[in-house]
Every structure is written in C-alpha cells, then in structure tokens.
C-alpha cells in the first residue's frame, strides 16, 4: 500500500510535450528540469501526481517476453536509479518511447511529466521512486478579476489537478523482477487506452495477495451465479445466502484456506466437489494458478465486495435485500393466483 502522506520529496521534475505521430503531432523536449523552489507550486504538483494513488494496493511489474532487460522503460528507469545525473537524458528516451507508442488515431497528445521522488513509504518500506504522468484533457476555467473598479470575466484552458489522466509510480524494489509498479489509467475502459499499459510500459499484474484475493472472489461469484444453478436445484435466495457467507469469509478471515472455506461456506460434499472441479476449469480458462492458501488482502476484497450482490429481484415490482439467515425465508407457490411467493420471518421492524 502506498502511503501518500509520506511521499513528500519531489526532487526532480521535467515536462515534455508528446503528440500523436499518426496525426503529425510533434514531440517537444524541455532542455532541463523545472525549478521547484516555489513551495506552493511543488505542493500542488505533488498532490496532482500522488493523491490518485491513495489506498491503491494493486501492483504490476515491468516485463518482456524474452528478458526484462529488453523492456525499454526498465532500461531507462534503471539508469536513473543508478545515477540521478542521468535523469534528464533518460527522460528524453522515455518521452520518445511514449511518442512511438502513441500511434492509435484516438490517442490524445498531452504533457508528459517525469518526476523523481527521493522518499516514498510503500508497504512499510522507505524507497525512491520514478513517476511518469500524462495529462491529456484540458478544461476551461473562468477568471474573475477587478479592473478599473469593475469586475471582469475571462477564461483560460488548463489542467484540473484533481484529475490525473494517466500515471505510474515505479518503486526501486525488486529490480530483478521488473520493479514494483502502481498504475493510474483514467481512460482504461477505452480500447485505445491500453497503449499506456501494454505498449508503453509493458506491465503485468504481480502475483501477490491482492491478485490472489481478487481471483478467488471472481471464482466464488462465478461459481455461485452460474455453475451452482446448472448442477443443483437452488433458489435465488439460496444463492444469495451463499454469496453472503462467502463475502463474510473474506471479510472476517485473515487467511484463505480452500478446505476450510469449502467446509464452512459450501458445506455439502457434492457441491464442494463441483466447486473444486469448477476451480480447475476456471484456472484453465483464465490461465491462472490459484493457491489453496494465501493471506487475504482487505483492500482487494473491499474493491470487489460490490459483486457479492445480495438483492432478490422479483419481477419488476420488488427488490429484497438479503444479508443472511436464509432459513428465515420460505419460498412457495400459490395455486389460486398461480404465482410464486416468498415468506419472510422476522422478530421486529427496524
């Protein structure tokens, strides 16, 4: 986890203009890093760069299919970590690499910021980091000012420092495996936006507790919402009950254990066997290897918890939120009306 309050030492910052070569947009270099002596400007820049990474426990690493030393960003970043005197020269290479990676016609040009942070606290470890950030969108701001005893209005286009379009922090940890990388990509849902991760940085998710928790949450919800109903006669209320029990397991336990989970949550031997078979197919389909035991990441669970939907939808008339005690719900069929019904038992109204 990145503690943004402990990222407070922005030592170097340079800015280059990176256009889209398919639109004949240029690449414009700054000759030298900018002056950071103005404390107010430095504080605003630090907030702009770092705040979006708050509570981000999802890490990547730089990679290359042949060997990590062939990853361009890995080479340039390593040279800076080895000698900070290389900062400006290597920033030229980083900007040129981004320019070469920005050929999709929908990719927007923008300002590229490359920063060196001397101190960052990451998972309890104090390390140095390189930040690479890009602003692609401009917003219009009104300027209200006093002129000759009258207020006047004008406008300027600028960058909203509360909205970072793209960014990454590369921490000087685990160099031999491609460093530890945290990424922000505000436009990642657009197809052309994958260039930031896939073409420019070339990163993969780290095989850590965050990813393991995320994968198991996906596995459990996929099983309950699809495979369970295909193989067994279960009501929607029973599905929701199992979703709630699964969510509570991830919420309350510090460590996931496959045998413990199946015995405490799934219970029925036939369903447990089907779940384990589904796990093997899930691993094959997603090219994963899911461990039987690992530390649960609370950050990953909180991010994924919303997919444990506990809503019982009855036609278009009713939505019933179920948080537990499936034994207090009874399903039946009314012969007179020809309709299904649920009977809910409770002690008192809240």
TrEMBL record:
<dbReference type="GO" id="GO:0009295">
    <property type="term" value="C:nucleoid"/>
</dbReference>
<dbReference type="InterPro" id="IPR007358">
    <property type="entry name" value="Nucleoid_associated_NdpA"/>
</dbReference>
<dbReference type="Pfam" id="PF04245">
    <property type="entry name" value="NA37"/>
</dbReference>
<protein>
    <recommendedName>
        <fullName>Nucleoid-associated protein</fullName>
    </recommendedName>
</protein>
């Amino acid at each position: 986890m990145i503690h943004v309050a402990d990222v407070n030492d922005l030592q170097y910052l340079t800015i280059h203009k990176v256009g889209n070569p398919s639109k004949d947009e240029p690449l414009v270099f700054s000759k030298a890093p900018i002056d950071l002596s103005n404390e107010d400007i430095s504080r605003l820049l630090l907030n702009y760069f770092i705040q979006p990474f708050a509570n981000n426990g999802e890490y990547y690493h730089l990679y290359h299919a042949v060997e990590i030393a062939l990853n361009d960003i890995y080479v340039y970043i390593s040279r800076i970590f080895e000698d900070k005197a290389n900062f400006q020269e290597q920033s030229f290479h980083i900007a040129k690499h981004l320019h070469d990676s920005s050929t999709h016609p929908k990719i927007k040009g923008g300002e590229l910021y490359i920063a060196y942070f001397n101190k960052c606290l990451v998972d309890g470890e104090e390390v140095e980091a390189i930040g690479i950030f890009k602003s692609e969108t401009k917003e219009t701001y009104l300027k209200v000012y006093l002129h000759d005893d009258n207020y006047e209005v004008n406008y300027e286009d600028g960058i909203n420092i509360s909205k970072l379009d793209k960014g990454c922090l590369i921490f000087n940890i685990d160099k031999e495996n491609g460093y530890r990388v945290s990424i922000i990509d505000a436009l990642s849902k657009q197809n052309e936006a994958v260039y930031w991760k896939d073409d420019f940085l070339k990163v993969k998710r780290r095989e850590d507790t965050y990813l393991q928790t995320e994968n198991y949450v996906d596995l459990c919800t996929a099983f309950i919402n699809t495979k369970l109903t295909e193989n067994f006669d279960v009501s929607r209320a029973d599905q929701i009950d199992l979703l709630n029990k699964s969510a509570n397991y991830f919420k309350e336990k510090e460590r996931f254990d496959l045998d413990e989970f199946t015995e405490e949550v799934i219970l029925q031997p036939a369903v447990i066997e089907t779940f384990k078979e589904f796990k093997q197919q899930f691993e094959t389909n997603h090219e994963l290897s899911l461990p039987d035991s690992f530390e649960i990441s609370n950050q990953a669970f909180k991010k994924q918890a919303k997919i444990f939907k506990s809503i019982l939808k009855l036609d278009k008339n009713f939505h019933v939120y179920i948080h537990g005690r499936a034994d207090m719900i009874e399903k039946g069929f009314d012969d007179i009306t020809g309709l299904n019904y649920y009977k809910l038992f409770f002690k008192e109204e809240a």
